[in-house]
Specification:
This protein has one domain. It is 72% helix and 0% strand. The protein is built from 13 helices and no strands. α8 packs antiparallel against α13.
């Protein structure tokens, strides 16, 4: 298969993956109207453990589950747990398209955090892209014109937490076993959400329990599609496909929740997406980036609910 055909195949599989992810977030929003994020995450991660176990059966590297970098791992666990709660809350109270737009700021934040954590050297072009992207975030939030809610703060917190978790993986990923990187965020969510659960618990009808299972199943299925996409195509082609989620968010938001993104939200989204795409383009150029932190963030925002699929790529001999 020639390169162009492989890249086309990778892009199409990635588009399918992010369509499934968007469907996953519809389930999150539906459940968020009735349950606290802690409860949704607890049950979703519980359903995910058998899926993670199935993945880890293929893990052949010898070693223990003790992390090589325990403090970095602890920080990553806190970041993923915070991202999960914040993202689920944002999806529950904000329009889908607006939530995605805010979360799309994560690649900009990865670029900034890679400087102190990875020693990344960021040139003027990427700095300008980051500044433009942050202006796009302000366009969406419209401070002073529209009251900023806890949902907006949660979305920003999720973007920051996701970026921090991704950069930490780039920092310690070469030294840690895939099993450690996969399981620890999930175990953190299970313990933390389980500790909070008695204070927020509401009885769950069978249909809602099924939706929580769907969250785990869709997340796992979409992750497998991401793996297939990156195996088929180049990262510089596949990575930008994540921005297709904004189209699904607009469609699903309209169909299921009667949402219609306004012109300002679309304008801010366009600025943020253009900035993110430019950063991916710059990182893909040889000699521009030492670590390619955005380009190698193979998963979307990490929430510790399903295994990070980039780790599975790494365990199969592909860079994460």
């Amino acid at each position: 298969m020639d390169a162009a055909r492989s890249n086309l195949q990778g892009a199409l599989i990635a588009l399918l993956a992010f369509a499934i992810f968007a469907s996953h977030d519809v389930a999150v929003k539906i459940l968020g109207a009735s349950y606290a994020p802690f409860q949704i995450i607890f049950f979703s991660v519980t359903f995910s453990f058998p899926l993670a176990t199935a993945m880890l059966i293929r893990e052949t590297a010898a070693g223990t589950l003790r992390p090589v970098h325990p403090w970095w791992m602890l920080l990553r666990m806190m970041a993923t747990a915070t991202t999960g709660v914040s993202a689920f809350y944002a999806f529950s109270v904000l329009p889908l398209a607006q939530t995605y737009t805010i979360l799309f700021a994560a690649p900009l934040l990865i670029t900034v955090l890679a400087i102190p954590i990875l020693g990344e050297r960021v040139g003027v072009h990427r700095w300008l892209a980051v500044i433009a992207g942050l202006i796009g975030v302000l366009v969406v939030l419209r401070p002073g014109s529209v009251p900023l809610s806890l949902g907006h703060l949660a979305g920003l917190t999720a973007a920051i937490g996701s970026a921090l978790a991704s950069v930490i993986v780039r920092k310690i990923g070469r030294d840690e076993r895939s099993a450690v990187l996969m399981l620890y965020p999930m175990m953190a969510n299970f313990v933390i959400m389980g500790a909070v659960l008695p204070f927020v618990y509401k009885p769950v009808p069978l249909a809602d329990l099924g939706l929580m299972g769907i969250i785990a199943g869709f997340g796992f299925a979409a992750g497998l599609c991401v793996i297939a996409a990156y195996r088929a195509g180049d990262a510089a082609i596949v990575a930008p496909m994540q921005y297709s989620q904004i189209l699904w968010a607009a469609l699903f938001g309209y169909l299921f929740f009667g949402e219609s993104p306004d012109a300002t939200t679309w304008a801010g989204a366009a600025i943020i997406i253009a900035s993110g795409l430019y950063i991916v383009l710059r990182e893909s150029r040889r000699g521009t980036s030492d670590n390619t932190p955005v380009l190698r963030t193979r998963s979307r925002h990490e929430m510790g609910i399903v295994p990070r699929m980039g780790m599975f790529l790494r365990s199969r001999g592909r860079p994460h």
